[in-house]
Design brief:
About 40% of the residues lie in helices and about 15% in strands. Helix 3 runs parallel beside helix 4. Strand 4, helix 3 and strand 5 form a beta-alpha-beta unit. It has twelve helices and 13 strands. The protein has about 350 residues and is of the alpha/beta class.
Length: about 350
């Protein structure tokens, strides 16, 4: 059995001096690493990924020690770095066809997490572990409750690969908690990210001129603003927050409201057609099975535990989505200005007809 150092309550409550962040080749991981490194109490931040970060992330990663590690091959090289906190963000939410598709995604999410947790178990200095999860852990079905709490068990196993990966990841984390009860382990179940900087399959889908929707369905959706997600991650590293937390903006939007707010046009598609396309990997405009099921049933989570424990309330789902819309407004099919212009043209046409009638009388 690995010896661990528990320390005093005062030691455990202080900010970690050495932090490892996985997934720094993407915006979320790089930004989290930068925000943690900006705290003067943190001496060293080590960024880990299987590929080198792109050039556009270089300004965020100044002062960050970068290590190229493929977690699917093991993470033993991280054990001796003296990390007191580790943030696991190297989780893929959608497959990348150019990088191996669904098989590579599962390896990264499931095998990579398993290997990382095995390394964490061997780190005597580790005091905090933060894992990115998703509200996809609840799945979606017609038997689901109106609102999910952290204690709600999924009624059905998710049909999509991402949802199943999340269930596996959280199962491994529960095993780690039992083996290393001295480590404060935080699991953050994020709603879909939204905002000007959001670059996800779902945000790209909602930015299309015509948005395919499920015929006869108008699900309730929740989002979390990227900036609020970053703040929750930062606090999770610098403070003790033991447990699992839903992270979402208060309130909901229906899919039809989201489409109208963004100035797009709905394209209703029969549910069987969307499921059939997603099942064979092509999807409808890039949607996965997880997202198609979300567009059928919707998903709303309770965030009372997050607000109570963190003392922080994310901006509302509607406000977060409106921030996303403002960044996309130039590409919108329907905007307030275009609506006003169309109304003006209609009024001008009516006046013209009336004037012609007066002349002919």
């Amino acid at each position: 059995m690995t010896a661990v150092t528990t320390g005093t309550a005062g030691d455990r409550a202080r900010a970690p001096r050495v932090v490892i962040v996985t997934g720094v080749s993407r915006f979320l991981g790089a930004t989290v690493a930068a925000r943690i490194a900006a705290d003067p109490r943190v001496r060293r931040v080590i960024g880990v990924d299987r590929t080198d970060p792109p050039a556009e992330l270089a300004p965020l990663l100044r002062g960050i020690t970068l290590r190229r590690v493929d977690l699917t091959d093991g993470a033993a090289s991280l054990v001796g770095l003296g990390a007191e906190a580790l943030v696991h963000l190297a989780i893929m939410s959608s497959p990348d066809p150019a990088a191996g598709g669904r098989a590579a995604m599962k390896d990264q999410n499931v095998i990579g997490t398993l290997q990382l947790l095995a390394a964490c178990q061997q780190m005597p200095s580790l005091r905090r572990l933060v894992v990115r999860s998703s509200t996809a852990a609840y799945g979606v079905s017609f038997r689901d409750p109106a609102v999910f709490t952290e204690d709600t068990e999924p009624r059905d196993v998710p049909r999509g690969g991402y949802g199943r990966d999340i269930l596996d990841i959280e199962a491994y984390v529960r095993g780690f908690r039992r083996r290393r009860a001295d480590v404060v382990t935080t699991v953050l179940r994020f709603a879909p990210f939204i905002g000007p900087q959001a670059d996800t399959a779902l945000s790209k889908f909602l930015a299309r001129p015509m948005v395919p929707t499920v015929l006869g369905r108008d699900p309730r959706l929740q989002f979390i603003h990227v900036d609020d997600a970053l703040e929750i991650l930062r606090r999770s590293v610098l403070e003790d927050h033991q447990g699992t937390f839903n992270v979402a903006g208060p309130g909901t939007l229906t899919l039809s409201q989201a489409v109208r707010r963004s100035g797009r046009i709905e394209l209703p598609v029969p549910e069987p057609a969307m499921h059939a396309a997603a099942s064979v990997g092509r999807g409808v405009a890039g949607l996965s099975l997880d997202q198609v099921d979300l567009f059928v049933h919707g998903r709303v989570v309770d965030t009372a535990r997050l607000v109570r424990q963190y003392g922080f309330t994310p901006r509302s789902t509607a406000a977060a989505f409106d921030d996303f819309v403002r960044a996309q407004e130039s590409d919108a099919v329907i905007t307030p200005a275009r609506v006003a212009a169309a109304e003006q043209r209609l009024l001008d046409m009516i006046r013209s007809v009336r004037e012609k009638r007066k002349v002919t009388r």
